[in-house]
Amino acid sequence: MPERRDPVAEATNDDDLYGIATWEPRSLLDRLAVLLYRGLVFGARGLVVLVGVVLFFAIGGFSAVTDPRVGLLTVLSAVPALALAGYVYLTDVTEAEPLDLLVATFLLSVLTATFAAVLNGVAEGVLGFGARGGLVTSTLFFFLVVGPVEETVKLLAVRLYAYRAQRFSAVVDGAVYGAVAGLGFAFIENALYITRQVDGAVAEAEFGVALIGAGGGITAIRALAGPGHVIYSAVAGYYLGLAKFNPDYRGPLVIKGLLLAAAIHGLYNSTVGIGSALVQAATGLSSLAAFLTFVVVFDGAFGLLILNKVRRYNGAFRTAPDDTASADDDGEAAVPDDVSLREDTDERS
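RE: above sequence
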């Protein structure tokens, strides 16, 4: 849908209608208003990051990632999620995403994950039931609380920085940054789970056989759970990319992506226990092998959802006329001056 213009501005393109039907910063007061608005936006983002840092220390995130024993197990647990995020990154046929945006998204996701830890706990206390409740109550908790909360905070990590950058230059970039946000979330979540398991089983143990026995099982389980976070947030991220380049439908597209990601997330949490038990009963596999089988089938099915979208985008990109993918000398997509100015204004809103 083309951008709507005031009828006076539409009919009299050659007239100066500043302050009547059009506006751009001209006077000192105009520039002050722009400066104050940008300051408020920047301050709000800074406050989000600051709160994330405080919560990160409060829930023990710093000690988890700095403990060399837990750190090694956490890195091992994140390998499958890293491999999947890397695959999504490599399937992007547009410009390669810059390392600084990828790292920033990863770190911001580590911080925003702390919001999920707090909000999930608060919701569990308010509702009186949670993940450890009966089948019906736990399912409701997964679909109405865990899925929406965790997918929102992961998407927030993308929205805080990468989304606003000009180098976020294609719809498919949303899937890449969403996948990286999922990796960051999985990393800190795994670290916290492993810390609790190791501390509870082997109090103050040295790194050795006892610690490996205590942490090995949870590390394997978290390694299998990690790729799911990448898939869920890659789905939401793709729709965030659509939202950036379809501003008239920005809100509905973001909501659609979050609904899809949260639904898949809630479905996984609700079915993984029963599904693994059914696989074990049907095949005679060990509990860990049955869990692995279920996760591979589940993640494979829904992973194809996002990979198919990326594949279709790549096909359209390769067959598009050359001038649609042309870039200026700085490597940025060429756009008219008025469009560039408008997008810059939109991104600050």
